[in-house]
Here is the input.
Amino acid sequence: MSHTSIKSELSNHISTSLHYLQTNYPQIPLVLAEAGLELSHKGGLHNQLGQTLGAALWQVDWMLTAMTMGVSRVNLQSITGGHLSLWQPTLWYGAQPAVYPRYFASIFVAEFISSHVSGNVSAIEAAFESSAGEEEGKLSAYAAYEQGKVARVAVVNFEWWVDDTAAAAGDGDDEGRRMQGKRKGKKRAAGGEGRGSESVRFRVPEGVSQGTVKRLTSEDGARARADDMNFGGLRWSVESGGKGVPVSPGGTGGQGEVVKVDGDGWLTVQVRASEAVLVELC
Here is the structure.
């Protein structure tokens, strides 16, 4: 999980086409169709890692990177029974109906773009200060602009973290272990001890007094499945009819957490390992 790799691979695939269109036919948008996360099927790797919170974080970063590069739309492959699908609507050759983690990622990106504004929304990679270590590609950040002003900020923390008490995907699979690299999962103690967190801060426009933070996260970490994930305190499932429902009575229920801007015009947010946050400025 690395923003640097995502950006490099995406650029390799689309830079020539994008440059050609922008130079010769600027009125024609670039659309990526039949796209999605592809992993080797060796040892069931796609089922082990492709339907997890880690895959959802990959999709968030990939889609927002594409947006900053000038891609107009993304059509994610989604067919009945397809391993790239965002959900499984019906029983299909033994596959049970399900909502998959990357559906949560699509909701995250949709809220970053927003549907309640008039006119176009543009995005750039955002400048930020953080407590991150030296590892390249660990953090990525994006700013959504409306009418020339920053309206929302998204941050992805690719630091690999899993709860060792949860079922371990990739055990006994060499390729699965290579996906993890040198990272070793840390057992989650009460209150989430052992899970790293980065302090990320942004300079916000004048007049902004606070931000509302929604998290794409799981207490089980990067290997979590959809039934252990939430975005902004909401979870989507077959049982809920595809509607977001609060994960707990005391949760944020989709409303998010409020973070105040300090006296110098900085907004600071904590982003845990294997987590993404969306901040609505207001």
Summary: Residues 167-192 have pLDDT under 50 and may be disordered. The longest strand covers residues 149-157. Residues 3-24 form the longest helix (22 residues).
